[in-house]
Automatic annotation (TrEMBL):
Entry-linked Pfam families: GFO_IDH_MocA, GFO_IDH_MocA_C3
Cross-referenced PANTHER family: D-GLUCOSIDE 3-DEHYDROGENASE, UDP-N-ACETYL-2-AMINO-2-DEOXY-D-GLUCURONATE OXIDASE
Species name: Anaerocolumna xylanovorans DSM 12503
Every GFO/IDH/MocA-like oxidoreductase domain range: 133-273
GO molecular function (one): nucleotide binding
Location of the Gfo/Idh/MocA-like oxidoreductase N-terminal domain: 5-123
UniProt protein name: Predicted dehydrogenase
Amino acid sequence: MKKKIKIGIIGVGSISNVHIQSYQKIDSVEIAAFCDINEKQLKHMMDKYHVKNGYTSVEEMLDQEELDAVSVCTWNSGHAECSIAALNHGVNVLCEKPMAMNAEEALRMKQAAEKNGKLLMVGLVRRFGDDIQILRDLNQNKFFGDIYYVKSKYLRRSGSPGGWFSDKKRSGGGPLIDLGVHILDMMNYLLDCEEPVSVYGYTFDQIGDQVQIKKNAGYVSSTASSNIYDVEDFAGAVIRFSNNKIAVLETSYNLFIEHDSEGLELYGSEGGAKIDDGITLTNNVCDYMANNRLLIDSKFDFHKAFLKEIQHYINCITDKTECNANADDGIRNMKILDAVYQSAKVGHEVII
Ligand SMILES: NC(=O)c1ccc[n+]([C@@H]2O[C@H](COP(=O)([O-])OP(=O)(O)OC[C@H]3O[C@@H](n4cnc5c(N)ncnc54)[C@H](O)[C@@H]3O)[C@@H](O)[C@H]2O)c1
């Protein structure tokens, strides 16, 4: 019988559930150990998933267990440290988004992967969504001609996940680094990962945390809140790429919008597209302006996309499939995010 791939999970909070449940669906995989600095959370997750081996120290887990691969699902401030530790133990890494707190940390992670000859995949899960896969397919089939402008939004009216997410020391920033990285990466992916050359960015912290607001629960961190909210409420950016293509983004935790909204629009020389709760294509048909609604369910499905991401990670390890969310993709995102925060601070465009 073929040996199973032994997996360790580092940071067993909210999102780790989706990693664990995806690994459980793959026959060639065995979840061998959990690690979390919070002993209570560690015990809770070991009981929930019947995992016998638990550690509160990453180094100890890596020394004791013969792991093939890990998922790093800690706070953002733990991503570089835990990923580098695993890579230095000869273990493959799937690190959650954002890749790190900044581009400098992300580069050190890539160096550790290269030095040890191991895979470092970044959890850019939106690449695995049906909506983006369909637009990539249309692009490869030249529907859009040359795509030159993409804009995307990920706006919450009142939606910080709490816990460490609003504590800059552990998160690196607010909605921009948390939600913005998703839409930034989607746009990078659709623009074929061109190199960014300059960024004009802005952030606002006019509202602050709204813990008193009565609302339906959204995504929440499993970490207890610390009353620290020192991140931005709202951020936006205009990003120019080497071939003059432009990406524009807007993202918020707190903003007085009518309702939460997500979406993406792209424009090319031959046609365009809009993602809302489906996909609309725009072009000219026999010199008539036409809008076409695709008759396929393309709405982003969180669990389906995660399963595809985790299956891809395992395929990269076992079959040497080329990784489609690699360290360079993560670093490109981090360089842009660093530049948005820098531009917001200095009040003008920043050259990357
Ligand atoms: N891809 C997505 O759509 C998506 C969605 C949500 C969260 N995330 C990312 O997943 C990561 C975790 O988010 P979450 O919502 O699960 O947070 P969480 O607070 O629920 O869980 C994080 C866990 O990591 C543990 N931890 C922190 N530092 C550690 C360390 N050095 N070693 C071991 N354990 C450590 C904490 O004790 C906590 O239990 C973040 O980077 C976040 O951006 C991604």
